[in-house]
Specification:
The protein has helices at residues 50-65, 109-119, 121-128, 136-146, 148-153, 160-169, 176-181, 194-200, 222-228, 242-249, 309-318, 325-332, 374-397, 417-427, 438-449, 456-459, 476-488; strands at residues 2-8, 13-19, 25-31, 47-48, 75-82, 88-90, 100-101, 156-158, 173-174, 185-186, 191-192, 209-210, 235-241, 258-262, 266-272, 284-287, 299-305, 343-347, 361-365, 406-409, 431-434, 465-469. By secondary structure, it is of the alpha/beta class. The strands form seven sheets. The chain has a seven-stranded mixed beta sheet with strand order 16-17-15-14-20-21-22. Helix 2 (109-119) packs across helix 4 (136-146) and helix 12 crosses helix 13 (374-397).
Length: 492
């Protein structure tokens, strides 16, 4: 038996097929080969077409099924991971009403701040754990205010993974974890937030059926089964946002455990058994994938930097002169720590929650035409990303997050020795690298939801540690000095 996992990313859709017996990935694929674009009709806006996600999902499943490494009819469940916070709106016929307003869109910041005031800051933090901020609920309020004709046609709202599951099954569900990432969930009363729904004037009928993360979210429709060569009757049995799912894929499910990713955005994600929040909502708290499983509280404390891999991609596309990422990383390694004074602030991908929803824009500072080369830009950018994560890391410690190790999958920015060494040495926390990814995690999650595995522990028995990167005592002072200079340029 095999498990299929789908990871709906910003730049591509990834798929993984996992063997039930070994818990190992036996095939993987991504589509398209060229990174998907983000539409920005106005400055600070970010949209993608949900139909593009669905088309690319069909293509990636066909691609992985054609690998010849397994019989597609032996797949017994489907799990979905997805980019968080995106708003998808459909009418009664399940037709998409407008492009999805995705995670890095900044248009709803003021609306969210006003709702924060109207609900009452203390009440909002106690019940929602966050300001409504620039999250999914506030994006929906923006549509209500600015596109009333679209809002009137809306039958259901959902997140990107809910949409792909709907296309697979014809059914629309959402989880409390998904609702919490949209700031719809009341943690104190353990229900859909009455205060949020009232302050925005939303009808409860807009919210889909609420299901546990690990559960039956719909059975694959017969025509999709035939189109993809999959067995009839299998179900979508897991849906989770990409960051909770990434933590799950690294077996970060208990208090004190911490995960990191550095894809399009950069994230540090810790698990707590306390319903805690940051008073300034710079660090956000959501229901983790196993929140309330076995009646246990599991809160994911999330630091997000919007401008991470997207900065590295921008540099590759505009500055590298045709170099690939491996060549860029090698070139960056030839430049000393601190990039000889060049500082990069990687905040060019919308409002940054960590910086109280300010829009800084990406900045290159102290550029010296006589000293700095292309390689300096490569290194300073990667250091800037690592230093941004260090800045947020310090904020997280105020919420009691004091990890002895960070777990990460060997992917994206973690493939760069410059970035990884900078992060390890500036935080002074070792990084454990694992052979896993979001699509594999989604596949294993689907196995739990379908009852194939009895527990998270059983599903994670095949997780493999690849290596550990320890802080280097000889580099500590150099990175400390470079970080201090970087922080001086960050004027909040």
């Amino acid at each position: 038996m095999y498990l299929l996992g789908i990871d709906i990313g910003t730049s591509s859709i990834k798929a993984s097929v996992v063997d039930v017996q070994t818990r190992q990935e036996i095939a993987s694929a991504s589509y398209p080969d060229v990174e998907s674009s983000i539409s920005s009709p106005q400055q600070g806006w970010a949209e993608q077409d949900p139909e593009m996600w669905w088309t690319n999902t069909l293509e990636v499943i066909k691609k992985i099924n054609s690998s010849g490494k397994y019989n597609p009819l032996d797949i017994v469940s489907i799990g979905i991971s997805y980019q968080m916070h995106g708003l998808v709106m459909v009418d009664k016929r399940q037709n998409v009403l407008r492009p999805s307003i995705i995670w890095c869109d900044s248009r709803a910041v003021e609306i969210g701040e006003q709702a924060f005031q109207n609900i009452g800051k203390e009440k909002a933090l106690q019940h929602l754990l966050n300001s409504p901020g620039n999250f999914t609920a506030s994006k929906l309020a923006w549509v209500k205010k600015n596109e009333p004709e679209v809002f009137e046609k809306c039958d259901k709202i959902m997140l990107p993974g809910d949409y792909v599951a709907m296309k697979m099954t014809g059914e629309i569900t959402i989880s409390n974890s998904g609702l919490s990432e949209g700031i719809f969930w009341d943690f104190k009363d353990n229900v859909l937030s009455k205060s949020l729904m009232e302050v925005y004037g939303f009808d409860y009928s807009l919210i889909p059926t609420i299901q546990p993360v690990f559960s039956n979210h719909g059975v694959l429709s017969s025509h999709i089964s035939e189109q993809l060569g999959l067995k009839k009757g299998i179900c979508v049995s897991y849906k989770a946002g990409d960051q909770p799912n990434n933590a799950f894929s690294l077996n970060v499910v208990n208090p004190g455990e911490i995960a990191a990713t550095a894809g399009t955005s950069g994230v540090v994600y810790a698990v707590s058994d306390q319903v805690a929040c940051d008073p300034l909502s710079r660090i956000n708290s959501f229901a983790h994938v196993n929140h309330q499983m076995n009646n246990e509280t599991r809160i994911g404390i999330l630091l997000c930097i919007n401008g991470t891999g997207i900065l590295n991609r921008w540099i590759k596309d505009t500055i590298s002169g045709g170099l690939d990422y491996v060549e860029m990383n090698k070139s960056a390694g030839n430049v000393p720590i601190g990039s000889e004074g060049l500082v990069v602030l990687p905040f060019g991908n919308g409002a940054e929650r960590m910086l109280q929803n300010k829009i800084f824009g990406g900045q290159f500072l102290n550029l010296d035409f006589n000293t700095h080369s292309q390689a300096h830009i490569f290194r300073a950018s990667q250091e800037g990303i690592a230093f941004s994560l260090k800045y947020g890391f310090d904020l997280m410690q105020n919420l009691g997050v004091k990890p002895s190790v960070i777990r990460a999958g060997e992917a994206n920015m973690f493939l760069s020795p410059v970035f990884t060494d900078a992060l390890v040495n500036v935080t002074q926390v070792p990084v454990e690298m694992y052979d896993t990814n979001g699509a594999k995690g989604a596949a294993l999650g689907g196995g739990i939801g379908a009852g194939i595995f009895s527990s998270i522990k059983e599903a994670m028995e095949g997780l493999k540690l690849l290596r550990v990167i320890e802080p280097n005592a000889l580099l500590k002072n150099s990175y400390h000095d470079a970080y201090k200079k970087w922080v001086l340029n960050l004027k909040i």
